[in-house]
């Protein structure tokens, strides 16, 4: 009965401690009709259709642009509207996310307390998970101390890559016959990573 929570971070290329974007994708398996699951592409598409997405940008780093090593596209979130946050609110936002993953749209509104709900089995998904957990620590969020996660799924490892010989998200999506647009936007990368996990499964 898990909730899959995928996170991707973008950091400023000249100061990696500055997290300029935070992308989130969530899939609640309770939204899926698990009695009618097969390996058809139509079923995969129905799972993808149930995913929810968010893209957060710290307002303090709004002017920072990645353009030397990778071409960033922070303004090009494909799956919704970008939400501006304060960098100091990053940790609280992430704690709310892992405590209430099914209430993604309300999490950045700190004036609203998400409804009390039973604890869920949360699976953390990432592409190159060790990199993203390290970036989350720059926001003051420690995955082992600040969240209850039953399992971590790294799509890079699932795709046959390793830390030394990684499989890029772009190559993975090509192999899955998905045209990934505006990569290196954290919201898009989180969305495509969670989609990749479902499609590989």
Outline the structure in words:
Pfam families: DEDDh_C. Residues 3-200 form the Gfd2/YDR514C-like C-terminal domain. The two termini are 16 Å apart. The chain has a six-stranded mixed beta sheet. It is globular, with a radius of gyration of 16 Å. The mean pLDDT is 91. With 201 residues, the chain is of the alpha/beta class. The protein contains seven helices and six strands, in the order ββαββαβααβααα. α1 packs antiparallel against α7 (186-200). It has helices at residues 41-49, 90-99, 129-138, 143-146, 155-158, 169-175, 186-200; strands at 2-12, 15-28, 52-58, 83-85, 121-126, 151-154.
In short:
This protein is an alpha/beta fold. The protein contains seven helices and six strands, in the order E-E-H-E-E-H-E-H-H-E-H-H-H.
Radius of gyration: 16 Å
Low-pLDDT stretches = none
So what's the CATH class? Alpha Beta
The overall average pLDDT, rounded, is 91
Number of helices: 7
What structural keywords apply?
single chain, 201 residues, alpha/beta, Nucleotidyltransferase, domain 5, 7 helices, 6 strands
Chain-wise SSE layout:
Layout (H helix, E strand, L loop, with lengths): L1 E11 L2 E14 L12 H9 L2 E7 L24 E3 L4 H10 L21 E6 L2 H10 L4 H4 L4 E4 H4 L10 H7 L10 H15 L1
Parallel strand pairs: 1-5, 3-4, 5-6
Antiparallel strand pairs: 1-2, 2-3
GO cellular component, one term: nucleus
InterPro entries: Gfd2/YDR514C-like, Gfd2/YDR514C-like_C, RNaseH-like_sf, RNaseH_sf
Organism: Baudoinia panamericana (strain UAMH 10762) (Angels' share fungus)
């Amino acid at each position: 009965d898990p909730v899959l929570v995928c996170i991707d971070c973008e950091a400023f290329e000249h100061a990696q401690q500055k997290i300029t974007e935070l992308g989130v994708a969530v899939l609640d398996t309770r939204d899926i009709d698990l009695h009618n699951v097969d390996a058809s592409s139509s079923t995969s598409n129905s799972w993808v259709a149930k995913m929810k997405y968010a893209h957060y940008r710290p307002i303090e780093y709004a002017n920072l642009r990645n353009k030397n090593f990778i071409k960033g596209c922070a303004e090009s979130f494909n799956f919704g509207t970008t939400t501006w946050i304060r960098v100091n609110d990053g940790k609280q936002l992430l704690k709310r996310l892992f405590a209430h993953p099914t209430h993604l749209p309300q999490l950045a509104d700190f004036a609203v307390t998400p409804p009390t709900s039973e604890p869920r089995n949360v699976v953390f998904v990432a592409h190159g998970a060790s990199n993203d957990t390290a970036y989350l620590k720059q926001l003051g969020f420690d995955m082992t101390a600040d969240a209850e996660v039953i399992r971590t799924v790294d799509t890079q490892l699932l795709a046959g890559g390793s830390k030394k010989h990684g499989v890029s998200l772009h190559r993975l999506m090509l192999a899955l016959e998905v045209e990934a647009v505006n990569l290196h936007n954290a919201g898009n990368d989180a969305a495509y990573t969670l989609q990749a996990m479902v499609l590989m499964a």
